[in-house]
Amino acid sequence: MKSAVETLNPTRVRLTVEVPFEELKPSLDAAYKKINQQVTVKGFRQGKIPARVIDQRFGRGAVLEEAVNDALPKFYTEAVNEAELNVLGQPEVDITELKDGETLNFTAEVDIRPALEIPDYSGIEVEVDAVEVSDEDVDKSVEQLRERFATTSPVERAAQDGDVLTVNLEAKVDGEVLEDGVAEGVTYTVGSGELLDGIDDAVKGLEAGGSATFTSELKGGSAQGKEAEVTVEVTEVKARELPELDDDFAQLASEFDTLEELKADSRKRLAQMKKYDQATQAQEKVLDELLKLVEVPMPEKLLADEIQTRKHNLEHHQLGQMGLDLAKYLEIQGKTEEEFDAETKQQAEKGIKTQFILDELVNKEKLNVSQEELTEHLMRRAQSSGMSPDQFAQAVVEGGQVPMLVGEVARGKALAVVVEAATVKDTNGEVVDLDDEDETAETVEAEGAETEAADEKPEA
Asked: Which segments constitute the PPIase FKBP-type domain (predicted)?
């Protein structure tokens, strides 16, 4: 077999491959054997039909087509390996010549990872928010904890903000009660903004036994998106009572004996959260600066596929779970479809560039992923997915996604190397030391397009 490579652009090549016919013999034998098992010819036992009879009855062309389809992936892979190409996605194959008994010639166009030059990144400087915890931050945190320990008790008065109501709802569209438009015994907190637009104004001032009617756009159900006439009946009004902020509350809500100890712990926890946010911010800003330093040619087909994948995931997974379609989502976001497409393209480009650059850094810095690092990453991914580690690990293995996870960890380590080399200062002008952070933020997962390079099997 002979092969040659023609560079079409920095991200795409054309392979020209010439295969002597004798190298097709194993695939020809396999083709005759396969056809033998699939057809019957009178006078011959199945599987024992001579090749000449198959040629006469079914045509030599059918045998050659089967043999070529079987052999192409092997010859393509050999040509890719011989040229040491790092290919992306599936090739476009064109058989240029097939002479029975003489030769098989074909071309294969395929995207490749572009060659990148990573410049010195030690001069990167970024500014992040300072870690400052105010008394107001602590008070807000303690108040949120206090809200969790609130109690309710029935009252004989009109409903007001913060009250917890029990209500019955009935929705009509065009004067007809919807089959799924009736609900009884629904618990609702006045002012929470949940359920339906307009319900807060309707229930305020109502006592138990009172009712009101208002118009609202339905957020779900059979008439989702339509204007409905909604009748709400209040059956019970409960007032929320917050515990006193004292040492007794501290003992009730925590392991501390005094309110001051509880506040001190809240301050410590808030500082830790702000440090983590600061580390995440540093990574995001350093990554943005790194992307500016490196020129990355963009494979057009890979970009188109990534844009399509992102739009599909948004429409059929994320929005579907929220009961929205793309048109409604864009209306809520206040964006046109053109603006959405432009943003999606920008995000996809950034994701692909991030992966290419960090993968190049992994190679340049000779970074490896240990089993312990992979296990820790798997545990975090399992937690964010809502699955148990065992379930997530099984799904990863069965889906052949282990290399993807290894790539995520390696890219995270590569970004950490760049962050360590960069100068990070806070808004007070102080140099930030990120070495004491337990783990790096999962920036690569959030930004990176998981566009793993793979040698796909071509079809003739």
From this structure: 162-209
CB distance 305 to 89 below 8 Å: yes
For 79-91, the pLDDT digits (tens) are 999 999 999 988 9
CB 157 within 8 A of CB 205: no
- pLDDT higher than threshold 60 for residue 448: no
Rounded mean pLDDT of 209-219?
92
In the β-sheet with 103-112, what is the strand arrangement from edge to edge?
2-9, 12-20, 103-112, 87-99
pLDDT at position 247 over 90:
yes
Q: State pLDDT tens for residues 329-383.
A: 898 889 999 999 999 999 999 999 999 999 999 999 999 999 999 999 999 999 8
Tally Cβ neighbours within 10 Å of residue 282.
25
Given a contact cutoff of 8 angstroms between Cβ atoms, the answer to whether 181 and 242 are in contact is no
The first and second tokens of residue 406, run together, are 């290894």
User: Positive or negative CA dihedral for 384, 385, 386, 387?
Assistant: negative
pLDDT at 60 over 70: yes
Average pLDDT score over the chain: 89
pTM of the model: 0.74
CA pair distance 49, 51, nearest whole angstrom: 7
Q: Are 163 and 238 in contact (CB under 8 A)?
A: yes
Size (the chain), residues: 460
Task: List C-alpha distances in Å: 444 to 221, 283, 359.
Answer: 37, 10, 11
The amino acid present at 188, given as its one-letter code, is Y
Q: How far, in Å, CA of 413 to CA of 415, rounded? A: 5
Task: Compare 60 and 315 and report the one with higher pLDDT.
Answer: 315
Rounded to whole angstroms, how far apart are CA atoms 54 and 49? 7
